[in-house]
Amino acid sequence: MPLELTPLPAFEDNYLWLLVRGHDAVVVDPGDAAPVRRALEDRGLRLAGILVTHHHGDHVGGVDALRAQLHGPVWAPARERIDGPVVGVRDGDVVSVLGIELRVIDVPGHTAGHVAYHWPGDATQAPLLFCGDTLFSAGCGRLFEGTAAQMHASLSRLAALPGPTRVCCAHEYTLSNLRFAQAVEPDNADIAHHRERCEALRREGRPTLPSTIALERRINPFLRCDEPAVVRAARAHDGTLATDAGAAEVLAVLREWKNRFR
Prior knowledge:
The chain is an alpha/beta fold.
């Protein structure tokens, strides 16, 4: 029986990801219980588990309200405090649910203990990555608790996953990220083409996600910190960036630039 993947919109721009097989479902980062309950009731689904990537309220705010309907564990980062009983997970752990196994990847940077969940796929379906607020399409999360070096290492791990991996980010930030990506690499045709595609999707009220790892390698400046054009743009923006700066230092400049970009 195939896996079904559905983004559930919440708040202004969040996606809570619902993974379904048969009559069982798992939800990722349920910051709001209401859309999850509606989906479960409308489809007659049993909530078999909850996956949490990090502790921010828009990712965990609905967890406690869903416990009464829950028929399985809440898996959450072992190095972050999540209220209520959880199964703490860390790098290399395996979560078995819906007949599949998701590998846990430590991806600190946005928060200190942030994790991602990766399913390698099978003969009929491409791999899946639930990456919370670490990797966005054409962007990355703000450095609230971690360093640029940590974020660079985390993004490098995700960028090394197979190209067809579907990237299930937690926010619809794609268009604003693509505008920034074009400021960094104005001659990148992949960015321009993808921006046109995403603008069309949003006009139709459709999500721009999931992305893929292969696409992100071509359009995401935070995965391209070794590219000469990206390095030149970072140096032009911040004249103090050393000529021999490493990729993590370039990422730090890009992240500060993006923080103020309008």
